[in-house]
Amino acid sequence: MASLTLWDLYQEFKPAEYDGFKVVTMFTTEPGYLMTKKPVRNLDDLKGMKLRAAGTGVPVLEALGASPVGMSMPEVPEAVQTGLIEGTMTSREVLQDFKLAEQLKYVTDYPTVVVTFAAVMKQDAYDALPAPVQKVIDDLGREMALWTGNYHDNENVGGALKWSQDEQGLEIVGLDEGQEGIWDGKLAPMVDSWIKDTDAAGLPGQNFVDTLYELRDKNAAEAGS
Questions:
Q1: What strand order describes the sheet that includes 171-173?
Q2: Quick check: is 207 in a domain?
Q3: What pTM was estimated for this model as a whole?
Q4: How far apart (Å, rounded) are the C-alpha atoms in residues 149 and 26?
Q5: pLDDT of residue 225
Q6: Looking at the domain assignment, is residue 189 inside a domain?
Q7: Contact (CB, 8 A) for 105 and 37
Q8: Residue 150: how many other CB atoms lie within 10 Å
Q9: Distance between CA 33 and CA 108 in Å, rounded?
């Protein structure tokens, strides 16, 4: 439901950064997960572990006590093989796409951050289209967000997980009892800090987060999940 929530958030706030563009749709990856050489079930397991991360994944790993290492995804298989890193945190299609399941045998069942995408066109190009064509584009926005999110989660990631488990012996491990609340507590200050900084800049930080949770719950309820 993250893709639908992102699309609905855009409709609600219409950030100025997209002025001059027609946003056709928006979507996300699935959340990032820890994929590691050895199982991670608690903060002690994770402490000091060298893991590839990018963007917002870096402060997440730092908050949880890991040691994030920046590199591009194509570098990851060799970095794992040589021992430069002990795993990665990203969406799980890479287990098959980069054959990482051949070396990383454990996924910790704790979703973290998503990566967002926007499909856009120049506003003047959109304005030059006939009205019926504009309506088709307008009507496709939410449908495309839903389709893309479902494709990524069910076809792309789902297929990669099945291959990894069936062919490579991948294990999905849960956190130890009580650890989920501890991990959530480690990450909560990041949200609080973002809200404070955004509000201080004159932007609706708290309103944005409140609306995000409302839309997430609404979309989840409508999907029956």
A1: 67-69, 50-52, 87-90, 33-36, 106-108, 171-173
A2: no
A3: 0.91
A4: 9
A5: 55
A6: no
A7: yes
A8: 16
A9: 6
